[in-house]
Write a structure and sequence with these properties.
Blueprint (H helix, E strand, L loop, with lengths): L13 H13 L6 H14 L4 E5 L2 H11 L7 E5 L4 H9 L3 E5 L21 E5 L10 H11 L2 E5 L7 E2 L2 E2 L7 E5 L12 E5 L2 H11 L7 H6 L20 H12 L1 H18 L5 E2 L15 E5 L7 H10 L15 H7 L7 H9 E4 L7 H15 L1
Parallel strand pairs: 2-3, 2-4, 4-5, 5-8
Antiparallel strand pairs: 1-9, 6-7, 8-9, 10-11, 11-12
This protein binds pyridoxal-5'-phosphate.
Length: 383
């Protein structure tokens, strides 16, 4: 058992370390052969026709995606209120406005029955977030998008590997899907992300805007037959490229993606079993034998529980267990609340959830003893 069971820990093996060392010795630190290989592997992982573009974060990827689909000043983009601020801030980068929708309390994902009421003549896109690694109701979302001619950009920061109706998130019929490889995510490169799309125009625009609006990336520039100093700037782009050091981690993390999921799934099953008879609401299970990535395992304290959520987390910390809260919904954050005049009553489910949710540790390096300790302490606090 660890002295303190942290909330999250990456699982970095010798393969990752050797690959990083190889990059360091190669002399090529930034976007180059490792990034290219990671993109190729990622495209193959998702299947035929999916193009993968490596970026330095999911935030960058979401920004690039919205820029590429043509989001601009005054446009509206519908998303969930129960997410990390990155999902919504990228909309503001482009002068557009997020329109927040409440969640379904059972799944914690966007309540699809409330999306149509949020659509106005300015609405251009929807950003569903697969909260915790459980797929949103994509059939309903894609249907609404088609009906109103809206684009769909999936925030898949939690969703590798997640399936929906047997298909991996990232291979559905949305316009763009973006993953995060932030240190705490299911596969980690420290900082990093991947944008995937089947649309060649979106892919080309994202590749260009990823690196200063230059029409060839640095690696091509130094290996192609054109003079190495020559390049063309076609737009005021960004600096969002992934380094080969990060890609070195990503290549091996991706190879383990199913194995790591299997280990988290086993922890989720153990929690499901051991917590079943307590006054808690357990996370929703995927439908139709789909895969839940189990990035997060979020329990909700029942109204009958005497201790507050905050006290619960404090008591767990005293017992050496790191818990967290995902998320403080955006309508309670000063910036979002003030700029859009958001009120608690507009988001009854997200507001209620926020008062009662606790994210338990779920990561591959947790030992069996760690897991037992978590269960024992929860029992002790609730009884
Ligand atoms: C982590 C996260 C992001 C941002 O990812 P970065 O790679 O850190 O930019 C976006 N959306 C959600 C839901 C996240 O959890």
């Amino acid at each position: 058992m660890n002295e303190f069971i942290p909330f999250a820990l990456p699982d970095i093996g010798e393969e990752e370390i050797a690959e990083v060392v190889d990059s360091l010795r190669s002399g090529w630190l930034t976007t180059g052969p490792k990034t290219k290989r990671f993109e190729q592997d990622f495209g193959e992982f998702l299947g035929y026709g999916v193009e993968a573009i490596a970026v330095n974060s999911a935030t960058s990827g979401l920004h690039l995606a919205l820029e590429a689909i043509g989001i601009g000043p005054g446009d509206e983009v519908i998303t969930t209120v129960h997410t990390f601020t990155a999902t919504a801030e990228v909309i503001r980068y482009l002068g557009a406005n997020p329109v927040f929708v409440d969640i379904d309390l059972a799944t914690m994902n966007i309540d699809v029955s409330k999306i149509e009421a949020a659509i106005t003549p300015r609405t251009k896109a929807i950003i569903p977030v697969h909260f915790g690694g459980l797929a949103c109701d994509m059939e309903a979302i894609l249907k609404i998008a088609q009906k109103y001619q809206l684009k769909v950009v999936e925030d898949a920061a939690h969703a590798i590997p997640t399936t929906y109706q047997g298909q991996l998130i990232g291979s559905l019929n949305s316009d763009v899907t973006v993953y995060s490889f932030y240190a705490t995510k299911t596969i980690a490169t420290g900082e990093g992300g991947m944008l995937v799309t089947r649309n060649p125009e979106i892919a080309q625009r994202c590749r260009i805007m990823r690196l200063h609006g230059i029409n060839r990336d640095a690696f091509d520039r130094y290996t192609s037959t054109k003079p190495s100093w020559y390049y063309e700037v076609v737009a005021p782009g960004f600096k969002y490229n992934m380094t080969d050091v990060a890609a070195s981690l990503g290549i091996h993390q991706l190879q383990k993606v199913w194995e790591l999921q299997k280990q988290r799934n086993a922890i989720a099953n153990y929690y499901n079993l051991e917590l079943a008879n307590l006054p808690l609401h357990l996370p929703a299970q995927p439908l139709h034998q789909d895969t839940h990535s189990w990035h997060l395992y979020v329990i909700r304290l029942d109204d009958s529980v005497k201790v507050s959520r905050n006290t619960f987390i404090e008591k767990m910390a005293v017992q050496g267990i790191g818990c967290s809260v995902h998320y403080i919904p955006l309508h309670l954050q000063p910036y979002w609340r003030e700029i859009y005049n958001l009120r608690t009553e507009q988001f009854p489910c997200a507001s209620y959830a926020y008062e009662h949710i606790v994210s338990l540790p779920i990561y591959t390096r947790m030992t069996a003893l760690d897991q037992t300790h978590v269960i024992e302490m929860i029992n002790k606090i609730l009884n």
